[in-house]
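Exercise (ungraded).
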Amino acid sequence: MPMPAHPTAWKRKYPQSWVMSFMLQRRLAARIVMATLCLLSTQVPAQDHNPLAGNAKAAKAGEYEFRINCALCHGLGARGGGRGPDLTRAKKIHAHSDAEMFQTISNGIPGTAMPANGTNGQGVGMTDEEIWQIITYIRSVEVKAPAKPLGDAAHGKQLFYGDANCSLCHMVQGKGGRLGPDLSSVGGSRTREALIDAVRNPSRRLAWGLTEPTKEFPQEYETITAVTADGKQIKGVALNEDSFSVQVMDSAENIYLLEKDKLRSFQKSRESMMPKYNADVLSDKDLEDIVAYLVSQGAK
Amino acid sequence: MKSGDGHRSTLARTHALTWKSGPLRAALRALKKIAFRPCVSIFHELVRTFGMLWLVVTFGVYGVSACAQVTSDRLVNSGKEPQNWLTYSGDYSGKRFSTLDQITARNVRSLTAKWVFQIGATGKLETTPLVVDGVLYATGQDDRAFALDAHTGRPIWIYQHQLPSDIRPCCGRVNRGLAILGDKVFFGTLDAHVIALDAKTGNVVWDVIAADYRTGHSFTVAPLAVKDLIVIGVSGGEYGVRGFIDAYEADTGKRKWRFYTVPGPGEPGHETWEGNSWKVGGAPAWNTGTYDPATNQIFWPTGNPAPSNRGEGRAGDNLYSNSLLALNADTGKLNWYFQFTRHDEHDWDATQVPVLIDSGGKHLVAQANRNGFFYVLDRSTGKLISASAFGKETWSETKDSEGRPLAKKEASPTLAGHTVCPGALGTTNFMAPTYDPQTNLFYVSARDQCDIFSTAPQPYEAGHAYYGSAYFPSEDAEPYLGFLKAIDPATGEVKWKFQHTSPTWSGVLSTAGGLIFSGDAEGNFIAFDASSGKPLWHFQMGGAVYAAPIAFAVDGKEHLAIAAGSAIYAFALP
């Protein structure tokens, strides 16, 4: 049967003090009730250490919760996906302690694609207990960093800014080109395998739905070829696009703001502007050194 | 007391005093004739007699705002008052078609923003506004409801429902709108209340709790007012609720009937559930249905069985999940049902608006379903007439004797996961479609996306997420494609499609001006030529669209309204 409830209508139009005091009283009463409930219940409240740490059963439950809520971006097994970092790395950019990880999952990371719990529009909001289960799971699949880095980071840096020409298009810590993604933190968020694949096969998977730290929208680095009304040919990377306009950067780092219906021609391709680095252009050893450099920067 | 009573007695008194004076008597008789007729007739009579211009000059801007009572007759005859938008889909048939024709393919290029109302909250807006005699009613994030001056966008009242902190919305803190009847507006909340507000003040008239939010029940749907009842369907398929559709008396909030979308022991259909799985079987009813006054039937669609992506433990067809239900409006008794996806394991809720179409003497109901097929049924019997794919689908290869697409065995999710199209978000979703009786085409926002479906066994725990699976983008990382598609219900053929930059969550509106209106994920509000699909006009609103547009008129001028980002926008010709 339907039960009558207490109606509370707050109207902006009349912010009379009694309305406020009534609300404050309600809030205070609600807090007392909440506090009592917390004392009585067995629920896991938000706290600064993981009450389920090391609990194998919790880790298993967390694995399923992870699949349901996190794997869409972070991939199966937490090994990183198209837009979410690899979480099996022991060192994480945004969360070191369990408590920090709890905050990150609860509140999201502003300026990135990481949403606050329950707000991503698809998943279901998790309870505190479920978040702790997920943290327990992530800890259980973490791989400690190899004792010795596979490559030579110092040599990798030389290559990055030198012969390999990476810095013509990519920036690390404010130094380098602008056409491709900023790689300052990529070493901390992508697996070694993903980094190698991105260099060997740049078009296989564009920066799918990648959100740059300075942007609130995803950029996929698609290649745009356009001819303006006066015949100027433009080839560059899409900075953003909708059905009627496109913002493009060319390899000389010029920005073009184009209205599509005023163009003579417009083409979009998922063939990356980044050249394919085969082993005869960049040896496995050199590539490993560049990855070591990116990892050393990304883990900062 | 109804607000009309006072008016009536004052008039009667005046009438009595002047009973004997001839000219006054005649004038009063005329006045009485007008005063006691529904607003719509007055409006039409005045327009017919004096023309729209006279109406605007005489009554000024607010001339027709005096009529507050929205009778059920007005809802049945909503087509007679195109200046208003009285139900979620604009009329009972679900067509989301407006007979307003001032804005046309010729002049739409000069369409311009008239006003913007900022809600002042973040999160998605899925609301469809209502407009009644110059007042626009809508809902916002976190269950606020408000009334705006539809001429200016200025708020008249704002009501904020106080939500507990531990609500369980599956997919954002959203609300899709209100119903209006009499002098009240009605909406459901994320903590599973049904609330009636006074339409003039926003004061709470009644507030009832339909179910326990702590076990995952919530309301996001815009209710439907039918006769003296407010019909509303529950959300919570992701929490293993047992779905239901409720009808409340508009005056009192007393529940008149409830139809459980998962049959209990002894009821027909109960045998389609394994063991006790029916108790947490899902089949929510979270999108607004339609109504046929001629047969007094409500057509209400239902959502996925729970857990949404794992069929193990709930062997059987799982009635009445992913079905269209034809219910008697007075009693909530089931007349017929049609199940689109049996024993669903892909979260393909069939909660899309069932649109009532009459064609060649046939009474039909059409639905562009999340599973990728466009279905046409006979709405008297529920018998399938046709089912045609309108997007990329790989789950079905055969049809049963009736012509219903059947799932391949290999489409079931596995532990390792494999790719199925459409993905979990479906070929379409909650975004409202439109049917344009001038082109005889059905327009819908569609998506081509495949997902990897993988099982993740999960025990039921009250109030906890109950998916039983997970889905991810397919390995080949194909970009997701989004379209506006025009489907011919007679053949199931896609007549034209417009490709958006990315998939959109916007609903679609058709108008007698030969236009289709829709929004995109990049924040554009776009007018299309209804026949060709050519975009004719667009406006950048600065926020993604998750809502459906409406058309209405104030000052005798056609307007359009749509929610985008955290605001509601109104457009008109200059």
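Further reading is listed at the end of the chapter. For now, observe: Chain B has a mean pLDDT of 89. Helices of chain B lie at 3-17, 22-35, 39-59, 72-76.
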